[in-house]
Write a structure and sequence with these properties.
alpha/beta; Rossmann fold; two-stranded antiparallel sheet
């Protein structure tokens, strides 16, 4: 499954049960506000905390939320103070028309100040990986080690207008239940795991119907920026790990020169048998690779 920050939506039905468990965040606490308010100045991102120790901030991808990372956050929370984040216009974080990577990097800086984090490890997947890269390049003193999951700093070709069209085609207010929403979405998206992932963004409204919890208009209007590259100002000269799925084409050999120019200490690890959703398709292997990297002696 791809999340619209790369160059192809290639849903796979394999490992559906495992992927659904991790992508939907079906286990664990669901600490989230029911209502999303427009910005009133500061961007106060919604977070969920796990464990104790050195801080590790986790950023989800497009159409996702911190709930998709619940199981991995618990695993990593056995070793670190995990701060899982809903990025702007996602989950229980505020809505705003702007969706640029510099703005999302500044959101993260505000979060660091609010959480009193002098510095932290930062991990981001896909869109979240681009936010993490932008943050590390802009505020390198605030990042100890950087983990980028299955995304490169380059721009990708827009390729998901059909996904937005399918989501806009849903008649949320008239559908009586989630089963009917799923049936309607199935007319456009055949993979059940993809549909269930997208429908995690649907919640009940005050009238008893449904509404999008994400700011779908902002995501659509800023989609070209989201598939664009990160700002290349400066470089991040600290340990950096790029994790890619063997079956994913998001990080290619042609990306390595740019990766190493911006992140000179970068290493690239490939998880066998996994696609773009590395953490969902190979959770044990993914957690092991991340922990090995974070627990290396500081240079």
């Amino acid at each position: 499954m791809h999340d619209a920050t790369g160059n192809g939506w290639k849903p796979r039905a394999l490992r559906f049960r495992v992927r659904a468990q991790f992508l939907l965040g079906v286990e664990g606490d669901r600490s989230e506000a029911d209502d999303i308010m427009e910005m009133d100045g500061a961007m106060r991102l919604h977070t969920q905390h796990y464990g104790a120790g050195h801080p590790l901030v986790i950023l989800h991808g497009l159409f996702g939320s911190l709930l998709n990372w619940n199981s991995i956050s618990k695993l990593l929370g056995a070793h670190y103070r995990v701060v899982a984040v809903d990025q702007r216009n996602h989950g229980s974080s505020p809505h705003t028309p702007d969706m640029s990577y510099p703005a999302m990097a500044d959101d993260l800086l505000e979060l660091f100040e609010a959480e009193q984090l002098g510095s932290a490890h930062v991990l981001g997947h896909s869109m979240g990986g681009k936010t993490a890269m932008q943050f590390a390049l802009t505020y390198p003193d605030r990042v100890d080690r950087l983990i980028v999951v299955d995304i490169a700093p380059r721009a990708y070709a827009p390729h998901h207008d059909d996904i937005f069209a399918a989501m806009y085609a849903l008649d949320l207010r008239q559908s009586p239940n989630r089963s009917e929403l799923d049936q309607a979405l199935a007319q456009h998206i055949h993979d059940r795991a993809v549909r269930q992932f997208l429908l995690t963004n649907v919640v009940r409204d005050d009238a008893g119907g449904f509404r999008w919890k994400i700011n779908l208009d902002a995501l659509r209007d800023n989609y070209r920026a989201l598939v664009g590259g990160v700002g290349t100002r400066g470089r991040f000269d600290k340990p950096t790990l790029f994790v890619r799925g063997e079956k994913s084409d998001y990080i290619q050999s042609s990306d390595e020169p740019q990766i190493r120019a911006l992140f000179p200490q970068a290493t690239i690890r490939t998880i066998e048998g996994a696609g773009h959703w590395v953490h969902a398709e190979a959770p044990t292997e993914f957690a092991q690779v991340v922990l090995e990297f974070l627990q290396q002696s500081r240079s």
